[in-house]
Amino acid sequence: VPTVEDMNYTKRALSEAGRLMDKIVRAAGQKPELLRIERDLLILRGAWLWWSGNYDDAENTIKEGLSRALKIGETEPVVEACVQMCYLAIQKDDADRIFDYAVQVYRLAKKEHYHKWVGIALRFMGISSILKGEYHKADRQLQMSTLIFEKLEEEGESYTVCIVAAEHFQGDVCLAQGKVSEALSYYLTCINIGESLGIYRGLGLSLAKAAFCQILKGEHSEAEKLLLRMEKLYALIHTDECRGLQGGGIGFSLMGFLSARKGEWQQAVSWYSLAEKFAYKTNRPAWLSILYWSKISLYSLDNIPSETSSILLRKDLDWYRKNLDSMKPRIGWKNDF
Question: Residue 33 and residue 319: Cα distance in Å, rounded?
């Protein structure tokens, strides 16, 4: 039985479905229903690819699924493909692309009265607004998203994950403005709801950001507890790429910094090695920002052994500050961290 986020199981299932499709098509030809299944498999595979960190392959696969969906002419699969393009753009902190596909989702969903997709589109628009530094707009879009899902829950179906997601990004609105305590409150709410309901997908990200807030507040022991909880989630995750998406892209830098504060130099080097692997491989501005911030913070420690310093601090302080400053506008940060 696969555990939560068993990406290898998903990979095997998608491969087997693809093989079965090939056999059926060879035997029965390209019937309309088979074309629909091929379309759906492409969109699912694209989603699996971005979640696995294979962004280029994900984009090509989702676009092919979107093209098939447009040719067939059914609205909801087009919406689903555009939603996956939004998720992919989020992995790159690409505000314009998130917005472009979110608008397509919103217009199609509004026309067809797909209320769930309208709520999701509004959340995507909110994320785009955060990255652009448009906080008031982001706050309004996220609140509208939450209201839609709360209304839908009144009709019976649970949309807790969608409500928690909006709550998380409300935390991002606060963090971008330097409102650390307010951001922490949002992230802790997400963590408490997620853990109480057994919602693991994305929980690591809230744990990592809450830990960052606590470090900013000087609450280092509490931050470490949260990061250890994040690490325990990895028992449910089966690829390094997913560890990055589940908070590791931020958390590894923080764990490295906290290890260095305690003089655990070998452990610090190990965590920073992971942090740099994810940040430099993806070139994701949010992850690079936390990495650079933590390296700047290392310069406040006066007891780093020279051999450790040569590994952890390959650039001078001004280089890290300059590069952090260059990243901030790309993630909508207007704070003085």
Answer: 57
